[in-house]
TrEMBL record:
Source species of the chain: Faecalibacterium prausnitzii
InterPro entries noted in UniProt: AAA_dom, DNA_Partitioning_ATPase, P-loop_NTPase
SUPFAM superfamilies referenced in this protein's UniProt entry, alphabetically: P-loop containing nucleoside triphosphate hydrolases
Protein name per its UniProtKB record: AAA domain-containing protein
Superkingdom classification of source: Bacteria
Pfam families, sorted: AAA_31
PANTHER family: P-LOOP CONTAINING NUCLEOSIDE TRIPHOSPHATE HYDROLASE (PTHR13696), PARA FAMILY PROTEIN CT_582 (PTHR13696:SF52)
Annotated ranges, domain AAA: 5-181
Amino acid sequence: MRNMAKIAIINLKGGVGKSVTACNLSCILAGIHSRRVLVMDLDKQANTSKFFKRFSDTADTMGDVLELRVKLPDVIQQTDFDGVDIAPSNMSMLLANKNVMFDVRRPQADRLKNALEPLRNDYDYCIFDCPPDIDMATINALVAADYVIIPVDCDEWALDGLAEIMDQVRDIQHGYNHELAVMGVLATKYDRGRYSMQTVNQIANLHIPAFRNEDGSVMRINNSVRVKEAKSAHEPLYKFAPKCKPAEQYKNLAVRVMEIVEGK
């Protein structure tokens, strides 16, 4: 395929499954569907970098790329999973965001877009794991991206911040990236409780796209101890616990992503 499709995974809330989704989606696209995937960790917490065991306090990271100190290929590392590379993060991202914001002499919002351009035929997918903030890293990801995935956890305040996310997406569409599209809202941590069912019903009635199953029902990722166990084992769910429900659901998500991107 190549001619890289770029997907930003974003929510203003933490703990909604952004990193888990980024890690599992990338591993499934590569491991099951033979796609080449670059995962770009833009969160200072670096959970995705830690999952792939490529975290370092001292190495150059995406913060250095954002500040234009190093080139993107200089920070990209192979992971233990064939077809998946990562551009890692660490706490330096916090200072990098501030430095980019105050660096008014040079363009601020299209740094990731420009950094990715020479690699457009090296990967089929680039997946941005964005922080729970509208910071310079997130803005750069949205300017560079083709699509947005919005995970929402199925709790009482599941849709908090969604309006602000959509405002930011529209601002980017109007000012920088006319082609940016919301691929879908993804319900995560579903447990069949009252709030979970309420969240799924709310998602079904949103005026923005939501991931759906073949029968039209809202796609959801079940809450399961297996998700945490797989994360601790540094393995994607489809390998760690292939028969668990979230593993099947993430595989369905990957198929839906490919249908949207590749028209399959």
